[in-house]
Amino acid sequence: MGNPKVYAVIDCRVSDPQQLKGGSLENQEMAGRFLAERQGWIVDKVFRKPHSATTTERDDIEEIIAYAKSRKKAGVVISKYIFKSIDRFTRMGAPEYWPLKDKLEREGIVLADTTGIIQPKRNSLEHLGGNHEYWWSMSSPSETAEMLAAHQGRQEVRDILTRLVGAEMKLVQEGYAVRRAPDGLKNSSVLVDGKKKIIREPSDRAHFLQKAFEMRANGGDDAKIVGLLNAMGYKTPLYHRWDRSDKERPKLIGKSGGNPLTIKQLQRMIQQTEYVAVIYEKWTRHRPVKAHWDGIVSVDVFNRANRGKIYIDPDSFAKAKAGDAVEVRHNYSPWGKVKRIKDNPEYPWKCILCHHCKSEVLASASVGKSGKKFPAYHCGGSKSGKRAHEYFRIAQDEFEKNVRAYLDSLKFDEGFLALLELHLLDEYRNREKEILVAASSIGHNVADLKTKLANKLDAFGHAKTQTVRDMLEAEIEQIEKDITKAEGERGRIEITEKSIRSFRHYAAHVMEHPSEILTEADNLFSRRLLLTLFFEEIPTYDQILNGTPKLTSLFKLSEEFSANKSQLVTLRGIEPRFTP
Fold this sequence. Notes:
- The protein has 17 helices and 19 strands.
- 43% of the residues lie in helices and 16% in strands.
- The longest helix has 47 residues, at 416-462.
- Helix 12 (416-462) packs antiparallel against helix 13.
- The strands form 8 sheets. A 4-stranded parallel beta sheet has the order 2-1-3-4, sandwiched between helices. The chain has a 3-stranded antiparallel beta sheet with strand order 15-16-17.
- Strand 7 (185-192) and strand 8 (195-202) form a beta hairpin.
- With 580 residues, it is an alpha+beta fold.
């Protein structure tokens, strides 16, 4: 009876798909076949795949075991597992090598390397005859060499990754890029001292990010920003999806991304410091450094867009060279240390200053013995601090009558409205190009959507099954909604000179009564800002009584103003806003 046939599999492995382009797999297969031929083994199958040997989740080993079990059912017993060397089998060292080896041996599969380190097991009692065999008597004379080779494989991985990752960390700390660029930027190679290094530069999608930063810096609402960008054709970046069932030749099966922008995505993008040329991550030890490229937005725009969530100190940024540290603060506001006065709509004029300490007056209502409330504005009486001065208290009615009487006496300086119209026209000319670019982008997007709609309608006409028709109908409905939204956004941003003149007449009608604007303001913060439109500095109560606040050049005191506090009117108002 002849020798039984011995069947083997050959495992050819590289660490990642990029290495498939070289000849490593072919060389490994050639060495494996040479070993099998020399030993008289039959090669049943060759496995060729990219798989990292530094992971403990070895689905490639499970694949070989499953194959061996399936072949055993067909009468073919796989008993040999051939690979190039132990460091190709695993790079996780002896702690990972022995469990994998034992797992295969329990399935009747013995390891064999083409370098010849692994030797067959021997019985340490065989010289005594009688075929005495125990678990402890069976061992391989190459166990120590195998352990050393496995350890060297792990050490090699450590050395390789230390060199690679260490070099990348050093580049990041010097202000260069090493990872995939965020949306709106792209990687570009530059030569520095004869070495290739990576920087960022604007991509063809940068205008979307610049528009988002600009609108948010100017106080734009996130929902409106998202609506405009989507109308301009913004879609999230596309990434390939692969079918890797064939390890050697993965197939492109689709793409991910290409979705409309959401508010959460916008808020994450706005906080990315790389758009202002600052690298801020764990590889810089969370120490922000200035990058070797120019940002697509300025530091001022970035700070205003983030509204204190992330604040880059302009002075440290201006002084820093590429690779130097930049000061970054979180949840920061220049007014963060200023005590904020609680807004109370029952006391709208708490923004007026105290004539003693120049702090905003306080307001409250005391309760008399009868239980009746006596509301008033007041300040002073504290034992320490700015308000440690003589206490004064003025009844709410009297205080507000005096403030309104003064505000009712204000009017625009002659010729202001004509100058306002000229100013708005100048602003329109300055932003006309920007408006046209946005409108053009929306126009292109609308055209693309209409083309897509026409294709869907054509496909709907040729659909034969109800299921397909239902799917196409849902897609057509969504495209029609997208077109309606985009056209609405285009109409909203297309400001014309006619629109500006209409606003001029509207301003003339409303701003003849400045007190109405201030009274109608939504909250204390808005009222503070509006006061700066009328006054060079917010006035004290005494200045209002005496008619001596420092007015801006837009207003002058009406000649009809007098000390007669009976000239009061019931307040209404509106807050004009215009963003050219």
